[in-house]
Specification:
35% of the residues lie in helices and 4% in strands. The protein has 341 residues and is mainly α. It is flat.
Length: 341
Amino acid sequence: MIGRNKKNIFLLFILSLSIITSLISCVELKKSRPIKPIKEYERLITGRLDADYVGTKACLAACHEHDEIRKAFDASTMGAQLKRDSGMPLVDCESCHGPGSLAIKGITKELVEANLKKGIKTKCNYKTLIDIKSLPAPAKSLICLKCHTANATFNLHEWNGGIHAINDVTCIDCHNIHKGPDLKVKPREIANMCFKCHEDIKAYYFMPSRHPVFQEKVFCTDCHDPHGTTTEHLLRKPTVRQTCTQCHGDKEGPFLYEHGDLTEECTTCHLPHGSPNNNLLKLREPFLCFQCHEGHVINTLDGSTISLEEKRYLFSKCTDCHSMIHGTDIPSPSGKGRFIQ
């Protein structure tokens, strides 16, 4: 009996080991591997297989045209990665521009010193480097993504399926790597950057009721993730309601009496960017409410009634009475949820 148990345990161990080995094999098979090293591809893109990598120090020592760019690069996160004690992967000029041996060919220390005495900045031969501006959009982004999808930039995992990538928007359309040490777009620059393409959205912010984007109190990236999401319109949250209630927490609920169509979709009544009506409403009251609700008779203090047509002239908004239109925990005097209090 004991021998049989040992045999069963041994068989179970072998079976478990086989399953684990199979899983590891599947994971290994799913890994993405380039057919050739990336450096070989970069040589192909430059069109010269005889180009070789010489290192950033050799490039910048030979070409003084890039002195200002060098200062900005050294102060940036990418520049910090050149330091051996940073613990980060190496990022240098050739990581983006390809092998630089041909660019500095023939430029000697003596030539550089002679040009400096004449007040001339020695230039490298840019034509031998990768012509980034002439590359197709996916290839431009790939230069950045070959590093940024493999490190801490997790949101870029959605980039290739996002609407920006599909419409050939590239990383360098928004990010200027050589602008300065801060490689991220500053919040106050975001709106103008987005409006270069989204001119139709820009028009909404000239409406009487609008989010304060021009006042730099709200930014496009508060609601949208430009690098790609699994949601419609690149929303940061799974639903419109969750996106809106990041700021409008008093409308979030849950409430005992909830306005049915508003529990998931704020845009049933509101335009998200701007509107000619108060509170970003699609239509002014009471016509907005009439899209879903029939009118009703209103009793006055003396017991007479006011018809719906008369109410339009006496009252400007349904919310004069139904003030808690987004939801409430307090029943109306009739005991029903009429969003009165």
